[in-house]
Amino acid sequence: MPELAVTMTQKAEGIIMLGIFKKALVATASIAVVALSTSAWAGPTLDRIMSEKKLVVGVAPWNKFVLLNPKTNQYEGLIVDDIRNLEAMTGIKVELVNTTWSGLVAGLQAGKWDVIMSGLGATPERATAVAFGEAFGYLSSTAMVRADSPVRSLADLDKDGNTVSVVSGTAAHQFAQRTFKKAKVSSLSDTGAAVLEVMQGRATAYVGDSVSNELRAQERPTELRNVKFASNETEWTSMNHAVRYSDLDLLTFLDTYIRSMKLRGWYRTLADKWNLPPELATGPH
């Protein structure tokens, strides 16, 4: 009987200890889940954006994409429409800060804005400085020359004595540096100055994105002509948002929006609205 009593007591104690262990395990798991969900929710930047319902965005002038209308003093264009749609869907107010193309990355790193939303092309070179998100548009590189220019191809352009103007820091700038072996590449701070170099004869061509060059050539058919390179000579680039690497959670938030809008055909709708080529939304394929 004493041995039986001891056995029963040990079993009872074991059951009690098992119950305590299970409760402790559940409590520990609950704490871990809370900690995980809290840390996964947001870093300082996204937490502030969600709390204040305000996102500060750096943009650079780009006709039909991001441009300040002097008559209304309001920004307009494809990217602006997309930003306003993001505002409407999330309740987050977006403040646009205007800068130059060459100042976009520096301003982001300095904390002047939370994200770059000017359609900055994602490249391995730029990825050493900023983190790029999901592509929402696609462009190729072309050359814009004077209407009376003999240049018809990349081979015509890449010759000694020719000068190619580009906007500093753009994908076209990087393309020109990699591509032209004989022609001189001259970088300027803004598009207007780079195009003016061609119109006034100081540059043989301005190399930029396919959409902007085509629009300029259509606007000034007697002065300018858009030269498209062969498919194996040009480069396609994507249009992306960019954040600091410390704000990857913000990028996840923005990418979720972009993927959703792609599935709805939103970017093709915007391309049609702004009279832009459909491949802007679909890419080279």
TrEMBL record:
The keyword Signal applies. Gene3D superfamilies: Periplasmic binding protein-like II. Keywords: Signal. Pfam families: SBP_bac_3 (PF00497). Residues 54-278 form the Solute-binding protein family 3/N-terminal domain. SMART domains: PBPb (SM00062). This is Transporter substrate-binding domain-containing protein. The lineage of its organism: Bacteria, Pseudomonadati, Pseudomonadota, Alphaproteobacteria, Hyphomicrobiales.
